[in-house]
């Protein structure tokens, strides 16, 4: 990994700051960028989860519900991570290797050079 | 067989309209080049072969940004060999960037479809008739090549993003107007903007061959700049 020294760390911080500021501005301007949409969605889900788990709404949920709800964000995060890694791994493993395309290209290159030389091209 | 009038009288049937519009289609290939003295003759030869074999009306516009290796000289020879109605040279003084190269090329394009590709043999022109067929089939505004579906794939591991696409001329003009990024992020942004504008996009499986396979091109830098580009698009579109 690239070492995060001095200038690079500052650039990273600046970059993230710019992204978040952009998200806030786009949100306020009502033309929502994808980032703004995601943040908005997360804010809604996050506040719902917080309200339900801290009992702020005064609702008495059955214990089994509470037991599932509390670690839900962590479970979802880990599942999302596993899905992402799994998909990438699968796609890399099943990526087609085109050896005949490479061979065909090489032979056509020979053909092209011969034909062009015949037509007067000086390489 | 009755001869078809290409211009003038109104079409007598829908079939005639289709045939007439096919007869009038012209495909302009934009080839921005920088130091492609070796590859340029080969890519042009392959393009001419694919187009002539399929009977497609075409032109190839070479936009050289003042290459120091003599690319322009080779381009001039190709123009003599294939004719200046097929090979159009529209060079520039120095390296001015990909986006402006496309704008410059489009000003001189007389086709109603534009094909954008790299001059370095990363994509084989044999796929272009397939692109054209796909475009007609689904009446798509854009057709993009993909290495990830169907029998697409790669030979060699060049992480650089190479893109081959067919656009309707007016669609490309509109998109270039709207895009703000530079470099290859600009190519990614074009697709994002196209979706926002509800243009239809088709895909054709292609194979990407790294011709000089054997040299290592894996660089952490490419991954970082790709992710940066992606995050920038995520936050700005």
UniProtKB/TrEMBL annotation, chain A:
<comment type="subunit">
    <text>Component of the dolichol-phosphate mannose (DPM) synthase complex.</text>
</comment>
<comment type="pathway">
    <text>Protein modification; protein glycosylation.</text>
</comment>
<feature type="transmembrane region" description="Helical">
    <location>
        <begin position="12"/>
        <end position="32"/>
    </location>
</feature>
<dbReference type="Pfam" id="PF08285">
    <property type="entry name" value="DPM3"/>
</dbReference>
<dbReference type="GO" id="GO:0006506">
    <property type="term" value="P:GPI anchor biosynthetic process"/>
</dbReference>
<keyword id="KW-1133">Transmembrane helix</keyword>
<dbReference type="InterPro" id="IPR013174">
    <property type="entry name" value="DPM3"/>
</dbReference>
<protein>
    <recommendedName>
        <fullName>Dolichol-phosphate mannosyltransferase subunit 3</fullName>
    </recommendedName>
</protein>
<keyword id="KW-0256">Endoplasmic reticulum</keyword>
<feature type="transmembrane region" description="Helical">
    <location>
        <begin position="38"/>
        <end position="59"/>
    </location>
</feature>
<keyword id="KW-0812">Transmembrane</keyword>
<keyword id="KW-0472">Membrane</keyword>
<comment type="function">
    <text>Stabilizer subunit of the dolichol-phosphate mannose (DPM) synthase complex; tethers catalytic subunit to the ER.</text>
</comment>
<dbReference type="GO" id="GO:0033185">
    <property type="term" value="C:dolichol-phosphate-mannose synthase complex"/>
</dbReference>
<comment type="similarity">
    <text>Belongs to the DPM3 family.</text>
</comment>
<dbReference type="GO" id="GO:0005789">
    <property type="term" value="C:endoplasmic reticulum membrane"/>
</dbReference>
């Amino acid at each position: 990994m690239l070492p995060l020294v001095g200038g690079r760390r500052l650039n990273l911080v600046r970059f993230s700051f710019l992204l978040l500021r952009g998200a806030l501005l786009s949100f306020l301007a009502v033309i929502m960028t994808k980032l703004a949409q995601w943040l908005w969605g997360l804010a809604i889900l996050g506040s719902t989860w917080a309200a339900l788990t801290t009992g702020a709404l005064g609702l008495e949920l059955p214990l089994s519900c509470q037991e599932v709800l509390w670690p839900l964000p962590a479970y979802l995060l880990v599942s999302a991570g596993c899905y992402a890694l799994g998909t990438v791994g699968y796609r890399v493993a099943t990526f087609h290797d085109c050896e005949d395309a490479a061979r065909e290209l090489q032979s056509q290159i020979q053909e092209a050079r011969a034909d062009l030389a015949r037509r007067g091209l000086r390489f | 067989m009755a001869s078809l009038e290409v211009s003038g009288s109104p079409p007598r049937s829908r079939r005639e309209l289709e045939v007439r519009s096919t007869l009038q289609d012209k495909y302009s290939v934009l080839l921005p080049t920088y130091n492609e003295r070796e590859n340029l003759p080969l890519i042009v030869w392959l393009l001419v072969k694919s187009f002539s074999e399929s009977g497609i009306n075409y032109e190839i516009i070479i936009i050289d940004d003042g290459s120091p290796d003599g690319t322009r000289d080779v381009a001039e020879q190709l123009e003599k060999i294939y004719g200046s109605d097929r090979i159009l040279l529209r060079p520039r003084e120095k390296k001015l960037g990909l986006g402006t190269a496309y704008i410059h090329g489009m000003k001189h394009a007389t086709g109603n479809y534009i094909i954008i590709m790299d001059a370095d043999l990363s994509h084989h022109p044999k796929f272009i008739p397939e692109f054209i067929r796909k475009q007609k089939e689904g009446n798509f505004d854009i057709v993009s090549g993909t290495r990830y579906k169907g029998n697409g794939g790669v030979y060699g591991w060049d992480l650089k993003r190479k893109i081959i696409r067919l656009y309707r001329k007016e669609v490309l003009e509109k998109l270039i107007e709207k895009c703000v990024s530079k470099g290859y992020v600009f190519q990614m942004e074009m697709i994002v903007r196209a979706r926002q504008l509800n243009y239809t996009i088709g895909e054709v499986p292609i194979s990407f061959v790294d011709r000089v396979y054997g040299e290592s091109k894996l660089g952490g830098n490419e991954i970082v700049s790709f992710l940066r580009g992606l995050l920038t698009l995520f936050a700005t579109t």
